[in-house]
Each structure stands twice: as C-alpha cells, then as structure tokens.
Design brief:
The structure is a single chain. It contains 16 helices and 23 strands. The chain is globular, with a radius of gyration of 25 Å. The chain has 541 residues and is of the alpha/beta class. It has helices spanning 24-37, 78-96, 100-115, 119-130, 134-161, 192-204, 218-230, 245-252, 267-279, 308-320, 340-353, 372-387, 420-423, 441-450, 465-474, 513-517; strands at residues 41-43, 45-47, 50-52, 57-62, 65-74, 170-178, 182-186, 208-212, 238-240, 258-264, 289-293, 298-302, 330-336, 391-395, 399-400, 406-407, 410-414, 430-436, 454-455, 457-461, 481-484, 501-502, 520-528. The structure holds nicotinamide-adenine-dinucleotide.
Length: 541
Amino acid sequence: MPKGHYFIPDPINEPILSYAPGTPERDELLAKYKEMYAQEIDAPMYIGADFVRTGKTIKMTCPHDHQHVLGQFHEGDASHAQMAIETALAARDQWASMSWQHRASVFLKAADLLAGPYRSKINAATMLGQGKNALQAEIDAACEFIDFLRYNVSFMQDLYMQQPESADGIWNRTEYRPLEGFVFAITPFNFTAIAGNLPAAPAMMGNVVVWKPSYTQVYSAQIIMEVFKEAGLPDGVINLIYVDGPVAGEVVFNHQEFAGLHFTGSTGVFQHLWKTIGKNVEKYRSYPRIVGETGGKDFVIAHRSAKAKEVATGLVRGSFEYQGQKCSASSRAYIPSNLWEDVKKYVVADLKEITMGSPEDFSNFVNAVIDERSFNKITSYIDEAKNASGVELIAGGNYDNSKGWFIEPTVFLVKDPMYRTMCEEIFGPVLTVFVYDENKYEETLDMVDNTSPYALTGAVFSTDRYAAELAVRKLVNAAGNFYINDKPTGAVVGQQPFGGARGSGTNDKAGSMMNLLRWVSARTIKETFLSATDYKYPFLG
Ligand code: NAD
C-alpha cells in the first residue's frame, strides 16, 4: 500500500498533429500506412496470457479497397466467451486489491506509448481498417484515446477524494470498490478511442473485463491490446474475444458474476441487451450496471440572424467528416428561408471541391463507408429519397462499390419535416434539410425537439443572443451535447463530456467522473473510537 499521498500528473489534451505537407508526422504516417498495407496479419484473441487461434478465420479488408486483405482474425465461439469470463474472474482478486496508483501507472504508460512509438501505427491501422483520413484517425485513435486514458486517471483520483464528514469521536470513510464480478465491454466500429476506452475505464477502476469489439474494428483492436500489454496490464484483466454478439451474449448474460455492461453501438442492439439483462436479473449476484451510448439523429438549426457561411461550414464538416459515420454527425438541418439560398450556394460549392478516395491520398476529405452492409443500407435511403415526391436532391446522390464502399456526400431538401431521412439514423454521408419560414423560429424549435426519439447532439447558429438562449432552453432535453455556433461533432475529453439521453443512451458521459462512478460500488466504513458501554439513552430517565 502507498506510504504517502501521491498526486498524478495533471492531464492536458494531447496536441493534434497537423499532417500538413512537409511535416515529419506526415512522412512517418505514410510510411507506416504503406508498410502495413503490404503485410497480412494473423490476429488471435487475447484470453489471459494466451493468444488464441481457432483456425476459423475471417478476412479483414480495407473499406476503400475491399479486395485488399489486411489479414485475418480467428473467430471464437461460446466456449471462448466462457474461457474469457473464467480467466477474468481468476485475475480479479489481485487486480482489485492493487493500489490505485499502480493501476494508474499502467494506463498513463499506455497513453505515452500511443502518443509516441505507437502513434503512427494506431493511426495507420484506423485509416486502413476503418477508412478514416489522416486527421480523422489522429483526432480519434491517437488524441481522443490518449485523452481518455490520461483524464480518466485524473478523474479516478478525484473520485477517490470524495469522502464523507466525520463527527466527534468517529472516523467515516468511503472506499470505491470495483464491481463484484466482471464487466462486459461491447464496442462499435467507428471510433478506435471508444473501443479502447470501454474496456479501459472499468479496468482502471479495478474491474476485470471481457471485451468484444465490432468485427470491422478488429484490425486496430489488435494494436490497442498490444499497447495495453506493453504498458504492463496484467494478463486476464482485459480479455479480447472475437465472438458473434448474440453467441457471446448468451454466455455472458446468463452468468451469475455478470456485473456490468459498457456498450456503445446502435439503439436497437442496446435495447435488446437491456431486455435480456432484465429478463435474467434473478440470476445475478448484484444488479448489473448498464451503461450504453447509442444512436443519434443530430440536428443543426440556424436562426435568421446566423451567418450563412458559418452555417454551411458547420454542415459540411459536421455531416460529412468520416462519411457521416459519427454518432454526433449532423444529419438534419433547419434553415430559415432568408438564409437558404446562401447556405445552399456555399454547401454546394464546398462539395464540388471535396474529393473522395483512399485515405492514402491526403487530399481526400471523404473516404469510403465501413462495409457492404452499411453501403447497402445508406444507398437504399438515397434511392428511396431520389424517387420520393417532395424531396429534391441538392448535391451528391451517386455511389460506386466497384473498388471501395464509396458514397458521395449527399444533401436532400424536403418539404415534409417528418420525411424518413429527417427522423431515422442513416449513419452515412446523407444530410436532409428543411427550410422553415424565418418568422417561425420558436415553432421550429418545437419541431426539432419532437422529430426523433434520439437526443445525442445538436447545434444552434445565431448572432441574436435571445434566439440562442431560447434554443438552449427549448431544446434542453433534445441533446446531451449542445453547441452554440459550432458543428455538433468533435467533443474533446475533459472539455465536452460526451453522451446523450432519450433513445441515445444512459448519458453517463464517457471520459468523465460520471462514467467512472458506474464502475465502482462504494463501501462506507464508520469507525467509533470510544464504543458505547450502556444501552440506556438519557430520554429513558
Ligand atoms: P452496432 O450496434 O451494429 O454494433 C455495436 C456492437 O454491438 C458491435 O460490437 C456488435 O458486434 C455488437 N452486437 C450487435 N448485436 C449484438 C447482440 N445481439 N449481442 C451482443 N452484441 C451485439 O453498431 P455499429 O454499427 O458498430 O456502430 C454504429 C452505431 O453506434 C450507431 O448507431 C452510432 O450512433 C452508435 N454510436 C454511438 C456513440 C455514442 O457515443 N452515443 C458513439 C459511437 C457510435
């Protein structure tokens, strides 16, 4: 145990490297990208100290070059989920009783590895396997992941500092125990940082974890595990398995020691998991913690006082960076009639200039969507909208899957503000615009609030302070992350804690103390120095 009261180093956000022509980081990243493109890896599952290869392999390919094979991973079955749970539980006692400063050191070292020797590797993997351009990879796989690790360690320290008062003659203290059992982390394809944080946050708090990533993120998941191991994470604390979701779920959600779910992904899957856990509640030793960050139908509303160029730039970046595959991406916009012609002109001009292609060519702002399933889903929305009455195609609308899963940034204008693409999460480069009567701002705010079941992110553009305040007030429950005069994407750990409510999740704010609270179960200890020796209270006299 520590013999001193130590403070961990104050975190600062990892600086974002520019990758501008002539910078050393650009050359290093390109070289690493080419080196990894030319190799084929054989990715095992990581269960305890074992690298598990089943021989049942699945190919990993590039979204922008779907015939190019990056390697293969070994798929497991229910027995591997069972093995991962047993291995995690066997590691639990030692990890849970390690002093928190030593746990902190493991994750601080992982952050330094990512910031230094692993930076180009994790970024190149995210470009190759998930189809991000250099900047999108940098802000996710390097910076956000590093920030999650460094800030969470700091929030862990803050959490442990929360202590009760003590009256005369007694000493009260609270200890923040890890959950009794194991945590199941299920992660999405679209953020390497989320994939790393979902198992890391509970582990940091002393929990043991079974981690199941998306099959389209395994390529960078490998590197996350490599980093954790090099940072000294003991075997068995985080166990990485490639098992089909429902197969793993069947084992995990029937296990007595299942203690918590850390999920990010779509709303439908999360609701299904919640129901399963509810149905099995009598099987568990404790009530499991359920944390889920899920889908969004994120909005931008402009007031008539807004500046058209600022609105247009917010829409182009907010809707089309990473091909609209951010849970926070704007996908519905409400533009006042006085601004629409200008906003349209600027958006169309930007989209004419934007090029789409491989992330290896740094001039491409837009790359491919993740896989065939997404490509088919997104293009079916586009086809339907192209043929619908009352819907006008403003930009894009074309797609091509011959080499990669490419879909042009697409903008539709709708007469009906409840048209499908204004309400449903498409998760691709599709923005739908409704033009409202500039004198009906307040009614339009009500419409924004009532259009979708989600409440993840949203933005208002206005130079009129009363109008901005009205939006903040009327849309109080419409977004967990709300922006004034900025795009609704790009939350930074430590600055804009992230998460949504309503259908968008439990709003436990990833990368904040609020999230870490879910991975501990407090025990209060009261110690009395002079114990009572007479049962009689004075009032009895
Ligand atoms: P998804 O729901 O398809 O998959 C997420 C994870 O759940 C994957 O690992 C998948 O294999 C697993 N899964 C699917 N069915 C399962 C089952 N029955 N049992 C157990 N696991 C199961 O999501 P995706 O396509 O990977 O990611 C995109 C979605 O994630 C979008 O809806 C997006 O809005 C959301 N997302 C939300 C946030 C947020 O912070 N709110 C962040 C990123 C992504």
